[in-house]
Every structure is written in structure tokens, then in C-alpha cells.
Amino acid sequence: MADFTIKKNDTAPAIRGVLYDRDDNVVDLTGCTVRFLMSNLVNDGGELSVGSNVVTGDAAIIDEVNGIVEYQWVAGDTDTAGEYYCEWEVTYGSDNTVETFPSDGYNTITIKTDLA
Q: Does CATH number 2.40.50 belong to domain 4-104+107-111?
């Protein structure tokens, strides 16, 4: 997933991503569930670090075999302008193990102030 930008209080477009494993293979999501997590960024002595989760919600699996997921924003998700990190948390149905994507680092979301 590339970095994502949305305006404050917007609920469209939905955020969409393709999940890849450590070897850059698309993750097969057959039988899985996916959650979307977004956290604010905290300035920790000049370094940005992960703050608290501000959005945690169920994501839709758009294409199981090709690892495509989507989170549809709801009212309140984008009510504060700023920079955020996000990730996708997959629970595998076969054994209930959990894996988070991306596995190293985070995707970034920018919520920009709107004019009205």
C-alpha cells in the first residue's frame, strides 16, 4: 500500500491495500479475518514514535487469493488532522495465528485540514 491522504472528516475513499509476505509474495487470505489499525504519531524527543490506536476496525477482504483488503472509514475516524501510522492485522482461520502487515515498519496516512 502506498501512503494515503484524506481530508478531515471525509469517509471516502476507503483505504485499500495489498498484503505481501516477507518474500514479496501476495498473502492468500482465504479463511482469514482482517482488522485495520491506525495510531497517532508522538514526537518523542525529536523522533516520531507510535502513539495510541485511534482507529481499530474490521476490514473487508476484497480478493482473498490476491491479498486485497479495504477499510471503509466511519464518522469520527478522520476527525483530527495529522500524520498517522496504519497496519493490517490478519488472523488465519486455520489455526488462529495472527500476523501484521507490513511486517517491518508502517504505512502512513495524512489527514489534511479541509477548508469548510
A: no
Per-domain residue ranges for the chain? 4-104+107-111
For 57-79, the pLDDT digits (tens) are 999 999 999 999 999 999 999 99
Report residue 2's pLDDT band, with 50, 70 and 90 as the boundaries: low
78-81 long-range contacts (CB < 8 A, ≥24 apart) are 78/6, 78/7, 78/8, 78/9, 78/10, 78/11, 78/111, 79/8, 79/9, 80/8, 80/40, 80/54, 80/111, 81/8, 81/111, 81/112, 81/113
Q: State if pTM tops 0.85.
A: yes
